[in-house]
Model the fold of this input.
Amino acid sequence: MRRATPLLVGAALLLLLPLAAIEPRAWLTLTVAGLAMGMLIFLVAAGLTLIFGLMDVLNFAHGALFSWGAYAGFTVAVAVDGRWGWAASPSVWANAGLLLLAVAAAVAVAFALGVVLERVIVRPVYGQHLFQILITLGATIVLEELIRVAWGPNDQVMPVPATFQGSWDVADVVVLRFPAIAIGLGLLVYGGMQWLLTRTRVGLIVRAGVENNEMVQVMGHDIHRYFTGVFAAGSGLAGLGGLMWGMFSQSVRPSMGGEQLIFAFIVVIIGGLGSVTGSLVGALLVGLAYNYVAFLVPKAAIGVTMGIMVLVLLARPTGLYGAGK
Amino acid sequence: MDVLELEGVHTDIGQHHILQGVSLRVRPDAVTVLLGRNGAGKTTTMRTVMGVLPPSRGTVRFEGRPIHGLPPHAIARLGIGYVPEGQGIFAALTVEENLRVAMRAENAESRERMRRVLTLFPDLERFRPARAGTLSGGQKQMLAIGRALVNPTRLLLIDEPSKGLAPIVVEHLVGALEAMKRETTVVLVEQNFAMASRLGDDCYVMDDGRTVYAGSMAALAADRDLKRRYLGI
Done:
């Protein structure tokens, strides 16, 4: 609770301060967009923070998994839309079906790629940060080029189901539909992760491993099984983030993951390495600040996220929720 | 049969050749104490047995079976408990969670063992829902030992349990270790000679990565000359 109070004050300030400069309706739209962007970054950062916290692995290939998830979902969405016309269909069920199939494809492909990456390229470099950076950057290049080979180098239009396009008019306020859904999904994922981490035995062992993975091993737990599981689950989340981002921006392109990865790393550092809640708070902070500043001073938008990171690190070198190792 | 047997064990950490031929035998139901100066290789010996630092040469046998080369979790599952120096507790987890994560499986038997641990260490029962990071040094040590006891343990390795603890807390700890001694075989690394000689049956002295003396604890404690030569006391 002691930690929650300054956080709530900070959140209120962050949300209300821009109201001084932005007229209320534009502010509300920006806030929804900022929360949605934050939630999508959270999907990417959540996996990254657990992988770093538990396995001490700097995974720069996380962004490539984001792109692969987006393209896998894109392929399924195009195929389903082409065959049955589910994207343009007025039926909510057909629309939702398309979204679910695309989500399933994105998560499955990124999850499977995650298993392969962990087993083949990450496992030999445990404990060696420099090699991890080099080899996961290498993997990123390979994976991104493979996207160009398979899908071509240009931007492509992501089919977005009709139900989720446009906006709802709630009491004269425009609420964009897809961002609203992204926010809901983000909360759902956060809730699911919290449940898994705090209520299940697997989560207990993972949390212990984040603190001290050697101790978990000498207690008789095969940490490598948990490593693979967390890496693959984190990859699946990155894939989910990629697909949602593709639908949010209504397009996919091979380099999309790399751009998001920068945000995700900033968020992981702001939130504290290994903390899922920290990632959520950091992601929302970055998403909101980015949108407000992009509206007021467009050129300063990227800079403000870096600025937040610097401020947080000055005040709390381990990040908002980081325990520090 | 000896519970644990090391024969000509060599272990490297990076470029450094830390263990240079450690041989020792641990009798069942006895407390074997490892003594020696800082940097003699006592902790490395324990980490080698646990498989955290696999030996480059030599054999480690547990109940006659070679275990060097097995991963740490497999070694632990044979029934070897390990309480590392500095306790290795999970500060962000609660006391109860620390005990639960130590269980190899959560079942009626392990929960019964946890109840026994909580009766053995009433402080742990009292602070059960508290974060382990908030415990005092002595309580953390109780927790670290308690964690090793929630599984059936045939051999317990304890590394410097008295380090950094107040004398009155050490006294309490000796009581707990004496109770434990009746249940399992113990290998104890300890710098506190008074404590080591009260608990120990057998003893080995290590120096520069080798075992240089083996004998009964009582014999070493009684022999001033030996003590001065090997331990500088």
The mean pLDDT of chain B is 91. Chain B touches chain A at residues 50, 52, 71-77, 82, 84, 88, 90-93, 97-98, 100-102, 104, 106, 147, 151 (CB under 8 Å). Residues 4-231 of chain B form a domain with the Rossmann fold fold (CATH 3.40.50.300). Chain B has one domain: 4-231.
